[in-house]
Amino acid sequence: MHEMSLALAVVEQVADAARARGIGAVRRVVLRVGELAGVVPDALAFCFELACEGTVLAGAELATEWLAGRARCRACGHDWATGLPPQLACPACDSADTVLLSGRELEIGSVHWAEPEAATAATAAIEEE
Ligand SMILES: [Zn+2]
Questions:
Q1: Residues near 118 by Cβ (< 8 Å), separated by ≥ 6?
Q2: Could you say which architecture CATH assigns to the domain 2-68+103-125?
Q3: Which of 7, 63, 86, 107 could form a disulfide with 51 if both were Cys (CB 3.0 to 4.6 A apart)?
């Protein structure tokens, strides 16, 4: 399942970061997920909880920031919200020569440690296996 491998990858990266900092618990993980990344919210929440069990993330809250899909037309420069299912042909000139600007993100936005230490602001791409 896509969501399970994603959840496991997130937990592994956050657990590694916690270990490196000597931190014993994680309060909250913020994920940035593009609406076109093919992630089902309920499945992700379910898998995240399972993946956290027995790790320093046990009981951590998952907050997901959904990013809208946007595309731009190379022919006329128009850009638009793709929606879902995504409209990838240019709505202005009908060209298929378009680029996806956003919507496929899968990254850790921030991690809030249980310690009073400030949250890290680092954004890192998730390396899914
Ligand atoms: Zn166009």
A1: none
A2: 2-Layer Sandwich (3.30)
A3: 7
